[in-house]
Design brief:
This protein is an alpha+beta fold and about 375 residues long. The chain has 9 helices and 22 strands. Bound molecules: adenosine-5'-triphosphate and magnesium ion.
C-alpha cells in the first residue's frame, strides 16, 4: 500500500460527482501531482486527503492507517492525520507578523528561541522573504503572502505536504524560482508531497508521478516522461500539448498491400509499422497526434517529406514555433533556437514520431517512428 492510498474515493455534491471512484497509490517520499482543467476534482481530492471533506464512498489510508472509511464509518479528524496543508487561499494569521507566522509551528513543538530564529531566518531566505519579518499579512502582496505560507508549512517538517496551486499568484520569474526551491525542499525533507496544479509544465518539472483527472475521473497515472510521450487517451494527449499538439483525424487504409494512416484531407499518408498495423483494421477511424518537436521543417526539399507553406513563424529566442498549412492540413513544428522562416514560403516537413489513437474509444493504439522520417 502507498504512503497515501485512495481506494475508490468518491465525492458527490447533490447531483455533481466531483470525484468519481478514484484509486491512487502515492508512495512515500514521492512528489505526486494532481493535474487537470478547472473543475476536474483536484481540490476536492486534496481536501479529502487533508480531512477537510467527507467522503461519499470509499476508503482512505495515510501511513498504513485508515483515516476515513465509509463502510466502517471511520473518520480521523484533520489535525490528527499528520499532514501539512497549503491552499490557494493561503490564509496566514492576520494578527501575527511574518516572523511569528513562520515561528508558530516551531513554538508549538517547543523548539528553543535560538533554534527557532535560525530555522525561520533560513526558511525566509529560501522563499526570498528575509527583510519582511516584522510586516503583517495585510502589508504583503498576494505572492508574498503565498511565500510566507509555504515557509510556514515547510518549517514544521510534516511527513506529508498537501499543496493546492501554491504558486498561482506569482509572476513567471518568481514562479520558476520557487519551483526550484519547492523541488529542493522536497528532496531535502523526503516528505511525501501531493501537489495540485492545472499547469502541465509545472507538473512536468516538479513531479515524480502525475495523475491527470477530468470530470472527477482518473485519466492516467504515470511518470512525466510517459505522460508526455505516450498519453493514454486523446484527452491527456491534448492536455499535455505545449502549446498544443498536432492532431490529425483520418482512417486506416491499405496501400501497396500494407496498412497506412490516411488523413481525412487525403493529403497525408503514413505507412504503419508492423506492431501498430497488427492492431488496426481497414476503415478504422483514427487520429495521428504529434508534439511540435516530433516534426521537422526544412527550407529545402528533403526525402520522405510533405510540402507545406509557412502560415506564420513565432520566434521566442530559444525556440521557434512554425505554423504550417497545405491542402486543408494545419501543423505546428518547433525548431530549436532562432529559425528564420518567412510567411508564405515553402517548407518540407518530415514526421519523425507519432502516436495513433482510436477515434471511437479515444485510447492510444500505438506509437510509431524512430526519429527518422516515417513518411
Ligand atoms: N461545496 C461544493 N458544492 C457543490 N459543488 C462543488 C463544491 N465544491 C466543488 N464543487 C464542484 O465539484 C467539482 C470539482 O471541484 P474542485 O474544486 O475539486 O475542482 P478543481 O479541479 O480544484 O478546479 P480548479 O482548477 O478550478 O481549482 C466542480 O464541478 C465544482 O463545481
Ligand atoms: Mg482547485
Amino acid at each position: 500500500m502507498g504512503f497515501i492510498s485512495l481506494q475508490g474515493i468518491t465525492k458527490r455534491y447533490g447531483k455533481v460527482t466531483a470525484v468519481d471512484h478514484l484509486n491512487l497509490e502515492i508512495e512515500k517520499g514521492e512528489f505526486h501531482t494532481l493535474l487537470g482543467p478547472s473543475g476536474c476534482g483536484k481540490t476536492t481530492t486534496l481536501r479529502m486527503i487533508a480531512g477537510l471533506e467527507e467522503l461519499s464512498e470509499g476508503e482512505l489510508f495515510i501511513n498504513d492507517r485508515c483515516v476515513y472509511s465509509v463502510p466502517l464509518a471511520k473518520h480521523v479528524a484533520a489535525p490528527d492525520r499528520g499532514v501539512g496543508l497549503i491552499f490557494q487561499s493561503y490564509a496566514l494569521w492576520p494578527h501575527m507578523t511574518v516572523y511569528q507566522n513562520v515561528a508558530f509551528g516551531l513554538k508549538e513543538k517547543k523548539f528553543s528561541k535560538d533554534r527557532i530564529r535560525t530555522v525561520v531566518t533560513d526558511m525566509l531566505e529560501k522563499v526570498q522573504m528575509n527583510g519582511y519579518e516584522n510586516r503583517y499579512p495585510s502589508e504583503l502582496s498576494g505572492g508574498e503572502q503565498q511565500r510566507v505560507a509555504i515557509a510556514r508549512m515547510v518549517v514544521t517538517e510534516p511527513p506529508a505536504f498537501l499543496m493546492d496551486e501554491p504558486l498561482s499568484n506569482l509572476d513567471a520569474k518568481l514562479r520558476m524560482r520557487l519551483r526550484s526551491e519547492l523541488k529542493r525542499l522536497h528532496n531535502e525533507s523526503g516528505a511525501t508531497t501531493v501537489y495540485v496544479t492545472h499547469d502541465q509544465v509545472e507538473a512536468m518539472t516538479l513531479s515524480d508521478r502525475i495523475t491527470v483527472m477530468q470530470l472527477g475521473l482518473l485519466q492516467q497515472d504515470a511518470t512525466p516522461t510517459d505522460l508526455y510521450n505516450t498519453p493514454a487517451n486523446l484527452f491527456v494527449a491534448d492536455f499535455m500539448g505545449n502549446p498544443q499538439v498536432n492532431k490529425l483525424d483520418g482512417a486506416i487504409a491499405v496501400k501497396d498491400g500494407g496498412k497506412v494512416y490516411s488523413s481525412a484531407t487525403g493529403s497525408l499518408t503514413v505507412p504503419l509499422g508492423d506492431d501498430i498495423a497488427g492492431s488496426v483494421s481497414e476503415g478504422q477511424e483514427v487520429a495521428l497526434v504529434m508534439h511540435p518537436e516530433w516534426l521537422k521543417a526544412s527550407p529545402t526539399p528533403v526525402a520522405n517529406s510533405i510540402e507545406m507553406k509557412v502560415y506564420v513563424s513565432l520566434m521566442a529566442g530559444c525556440e521557434t514555433l512554425i505554423f504550417l498549412q497545405s491542402d486543408g492540413l494545419s501543423l505546428v513544428t518547433r525548431e530549436q533556437g532562432q529559425s528564420d522562416f518567412q510567411a508564405d514560403t515553402k517548407v518540407w516537413v518530415t514526421l519523425n514520431r507519432y502516436n495513433l489513437y482510436d477515434m471511437g474509444t479515444e485510447s492510444l493504439v500505438g506509437t510509431g517512428g524512430t526519429g527518422e522520417s516515417c513518411l
